[in-house]
Design goal:
Keywords: Signal. By secondary structure, this protein is mainly beta. The longest helix is centred in the first third of the chain and has 10 residues.
Length: about 375
């Protein structure tokens, strides 16, 4: 989502804590209580299982720490990349999603212009696309990639990505790294999907091999069918701006975060009716640049509250935060802390990451879509 590294509404003391916590040797911020010792991350995946509020484990793109972690509902780190004490090869891992079989993880390093795939079992990067810290629009180059997804198709694995500043959606053959399909005209920012886009920052899976594309510049979400044609467009309320990563709920509605301060989350029907919104102006419920919100199978809303360094779960019936991982406005690397978390995915119960799992258990799995 064209990330902005500066933080709004924070004092100099908080910024000092954040900057010191970004180092590889940092732990909890100075003066914080010692965090509980987590299970041996990466030694063996284990989880006590879901709780009433949280229906599975959560994979988190901890972008400011250049790492990926997985936590259980009890807030313990049960897997992470890199392993403790090792250097990370990731830079600004903006989003993170499991692959079709939950044996791999795909992440887009938005500010670094690279997409990477990691093997969950080995914890190693096995595939890259793009040139590190070098934006471009030629084959093999990206410019601010967002929301990379990995699909399994009869012709082989395909990666999709919203290439924001190149104003396009790419379909990339994993084996050959060739661009096999493209929506939008490279470098042309114009709201006329699917021919041109106005800063597309989301390309989420949709039913019938479709795709839901978010446009920052048009403040909308566009559903494309398998052929790339527009099915419908949801225009977001004009009171909000900077939509980020719109995706479909289990009931086929659209949920979207607004990457602003204060931040907001809105759920709308495909016809454009507002069904629910969350826009707390101040206090502990306020959001600061949330970039992704998803509706869980239990009806709760899980969201990244990026600049508040936390992941939150919201009860839409009460508009109260009922679960949180991270310390609000305090960045860190120790267990219980995050630094600008920008993406997440849910590991549903019964699925073993790194194992042989059938396709079809993701939040956005639909019959035959290879995800």
């Amino acid at each position: 989502m064209l990330r902005k590294r500066h933080r709004t509404g924070w004092g100099a003391a908080a910024l000092t804590v954040i900057l010191s916590a970004c180092g590889t040797g940092s732990s909890a911020p100075k003066g914080a209580a010692p965090a509980p010792k987590p299970p041996a991350a990466n030694a063996l995946w284990r989880s006590p299982g879901p709780t009433a509020n949280m229906p599975g484990d959560i994979l988190i793109a901890d972008a400011g720490n250049n790492r990926i972690i997985m936590i259980n509902p009890q807030k313990q780190i049960i897997w992470q990349y890199p392993k403790p004490g090792q250097a990370s090869l990731l830079h600004d891992d903006d989003d993170v999603f499991f692959g079709p079989h939950f044996d791999e993880i795909i992440t887009n390093q938005e500010g670094y212009n690279v997409i990477s795939i990691l093997n969950f079992k080995t914890g190693k990067i096995v595939w890259n696309y793009g040139h590190g810290n070098i934006p471009g629009d030629l084959p093999g180059y990206l410019n601010t990639p967002d929301d990379a997804f990995l699909y399994h198709t009869p012709a082989g694995d395909v990666i999709t990505v919203a290439d924001i500043k190149n104003q396009r959606i790419l379909f990339i053959n994993r084996q050959t790294q060739a661009i096999i399909r493209q929506y939008g005209q490279t470098g042309v920012r114009l709201n006329n999907p699917p021919f041109t886009f106005a800063a597309p920052n989301g390309d989420f899976p949709a039913p019938n091999h479709g795709m839901l594309v978010t446009q920052i510049g048009a403040n909308d979400a566009v559903l494309l069918n398998q052929g790339g044609h527009v099915v419908w467009t949801v225009h977001f309320p004009s009171t909000f701006y900077y939509p980020s990563d719109a995706n479909l709920t289990p009931h086929g509605n659209v949920i979207v975060a607004f990457y602003t301060y204060p931040g907001a989350i809105v759920k709308m029907s495909p016809s454009g009716r507002v069904l629910w919104q969350y826009d707390v102006a101040s206090g502990p419920g306020q959001l600061d640049h949330p970039s992704l919100a998803v509706e869980l199978p239990n009806g709760m809303i899980l969201a990244t509250d990026d600049y508040h360094d936390r992941i939150v779960e919201i009860n839409p019936k009460t508009n109260q935060i009922i679960w949180q991982y991270g310390h609000t406005g305090v960045a860190g690397t120790a267990p219980g802390y995050l630094n600008d978390p920008d993406g997440l995915d849910l590991l549903p119960p019964g699925v073993i990451p790194g194992g042989t799992n059938p396709i079809g258990h993701h939040l956005w799995s639909y019959p035959g879509n290879g995800y």
